[in-house]
Amino acid sequence: IEFIQALTMEGSKSKDKKPEITETEKHKMDIEETKKSLPVYPFREDLIAAIQEHQILIIEGETGSGKTTQIPQYLYEAGFTKDNKKIGCTQPRRVAAMSVAARVAQEMGVKLGNEVGYSIRFEDCTSERTILKYMTDGTLHREFLSEPDLASYSVMIIDEAHERTLHTDILFGLVKDIARFRPELKLLISSATLDAEKFSQFFDDAPIFRIPGRRFPVDIYYTKAPEADYIDACVVSVLQIHATQPLGDILVFLTGQDEIETCQEVLQDRVKRLGSKLKELVILPVYANLPSDMQAKIFEPTPPNARKVILATNIAETSLTIDNIIYVIDPGFAKQNNFSSRTGMESLMVVPISKASANQRAGRAGRTAPGKCFRLYTAWAYKHELEDNTIPEIQRINLGNAVLMLKALGINDLIHFDFLDPPPHETLVLALEQLYALGALNHHGELTKLGRRMAEFPVDPMMAKMILASEKYKCSEEIVTIAAMLSVNSAIFYRPKDKIIHADTARKNFNHIHGDHLSLLQVYNQWAETDFSVQWCYENFIQYRSMKRARDVREQLVGLMQRVEIDMVSSLPETIPIRKAITAGYFYHVARLSKGGNYKTIKHNQTVMIHPNSSLFEELPRWVLYHELVFTTKEYMRQVIEIESKWLLEVAPHYYKAKELEDSTNKKMPKTAGRSTMTV
Ligand code: ADP
Ligand code: MG
């Protein structure tokens, strides 16, 4: 690939400072010295004084300055956890919450889960003794249900505020409100970038505390022409850097686990073929579903005379700081959840990042020494095609979950809720309509008894409804398993490149004629029969870790079922009740077979297709229900079951009218019809 250097991103005044400490040297120092080397350290007394003086403080400092790991420790040292109160710190990402808590526990010399812990969805690693608690923003949002005044906290830090996730945005409104009637509660809003003024204005002109960054200049390079295949371009760029550039680690930004795994395999393969001509290249992935012991590897020092390449998702943009990165490769894409209020459809797609993101990514190269950032797009594309900023989640995703939570907190007037940026009116209305159709709200927009029970479950409203409907259809055992499996779904089947045929055959053995939810159920139940055997997973190309996680999630869901007093009963071998319970939650996600093997969604007539991985890919039932849509080259339905249209009238009579569902003969189309245009 040919790159052209376009500009150099300014470094800060770091030139006058002492030479930077390299990562290897840093590891030789003890923890105390490492802590002292962080940019926030010289400001700790001023910072504590500012917190003592003001109830709300906005903290701005570049990624890696020590905001997340150090500030809670300073607060602890300054006595903020006396009187049995905790310090809370929210993170938009699960991985960040876990990783940071582990680091802080290590720095404080305590066992993770004791004084320092974390709490994320379906996983609570805290105890009575916990005084520093890291959690996802979603978890804190949920804590409001049991502790509306956050009475057990003396300080709450809303961290990574610039990420502007839906939960963080809603937390802004909630914590601002509490701060008014809990004057002793300290509130810190911490952010990596330039939004500090905006946060300050929102929080009644709260003062801004700036931690000056240390940043070295970063040379920015663009490709001469657009790259058709950015994964391949990443591989080539990594090898070019490795062959021609001085030692220093590389950080590559990809969009998700699949891409990272592909890139890792190709890279390993090419490196092997190059043999001993090059220095050692240590390739490490990092993404949300990666087991935590593997995640910890990215923080280990690079072996002497070797180079580390980290293949990461967006998580390495600001949530996690990996030291010693000198080269950044940025293909310019990220995965984003998008919701169209016009079609009511939500789907995960790969989209171009914003200029702000591109600059954050580049900045990762200049933390410990001058660096280089290789953008796999043209300078023209950067200038003309990228938006300035990423649109906050609240303005682009489905608000069903958020609205249900707010209603459960007794906040009825959502139009006048104190939003930093309000969501579009249509999206809010659509969420209310959806909750009404699910039976969670009555026609006055008030929470129903069903809605209150739904809010007990830390899942989206459709899944909550499905779980609760399992009571009526007497299949709670199965539905809880399916819910747990869906929550880890993408990572269940293992498909190594050198054993694709074996893996695919193994997978086909689990295929259920009525669809993927039931296939997942079979996987789980067969595994349970072997007493949760590791060996069985290995033989069947099933990811053991994912299954273990599904088991944990399942256990938690069963606990919640007990709370809402639903008995655990099984309907097997009958699957109709199971599919009806799923339909009771997901009746929005229904499509009917049309021409050419395509499907059309019922309400909006959108063209969608069954994902090639589905057990129904060759069956093409007339009516299907899908769990989610993924947009790649086409809009695909992932996790699909066959349903009967008359069930829709049974489970959602206020949403579907018999007329819409006409031609509902449940006969399947002949297999050959409509297949002609498809290539498999
Ligand atoms: P900020 O929140 O300002 O971005 P952090 O507090 O996350 O900064 O990071 C401060 C320092 O701690 C960085 O040098 C980072 O590399 C290091 N660090 C953070 N987490 C870990 C970890 N799990 N292992 C080793 N070092 C870590
Ligand atoms: Mg941080």
Give the structure's gist in a few sentences.
By secondary structure, the chain is α/β, with parallel strands linked by helices. The longest helix has 20 residues, at 544-563.
Textual characterization of the structure:
The structure is a single chain. The chain is an alpha/beta fold and 680 residues long. The protein contains 24 helices and 22 strands. The protein has an 8-stranded mixed sheet, with helices on both faces. A 7-stranded mixed sheet has the order 1-10-17-14-11-13-12, with helices on both faces. A 5-stranded mixed beta barrel has the order 18-19-20-22-21. The C terminus is likely disordered. Its EC number is 3.6.4.13.
List the helices and strands and how they pair.
Elements: E1 3-9, H1 23-28, H2 31-36, H3 44-53, E2 56-61, H4 67-77, E3 86-91, H5 94-108, E4 116-120, E5 123-125, E6 132-136, H6 137-146, E7 153-158, H7 166-181, E8 186-191, H8 196-202, E9 208-211, E10 218-223, H9 230-244, E11 249-253, H10 257-274, E12 280-286, H11 292-297, E13 306-312, E14 325-330, E15 333-340, E16 345-352, H12 355-363, E17 371-375, H13 379-385, H14 400-408, H15 425-437, H16 449-455, H17 461-472, H18 476-486, H19 500-508, H20 516-529, H21 534-539, H22 544-563, H23 576-586, E18 590-593, E19 599-601, E20 607-610, E21 623-631, E22 635-642, H24 645-651
Parallel strand pairs: 2-8, 2-9, 3-6, 3-7, 4-6, 7-8, 10-17, 11-13, 11-14, 12-13, 14-17, 16-21, 20-22
Antiparallel strand pairs: 1-10, 4-5, 15-16, 18-19, 18-21, 19-20, 21-22
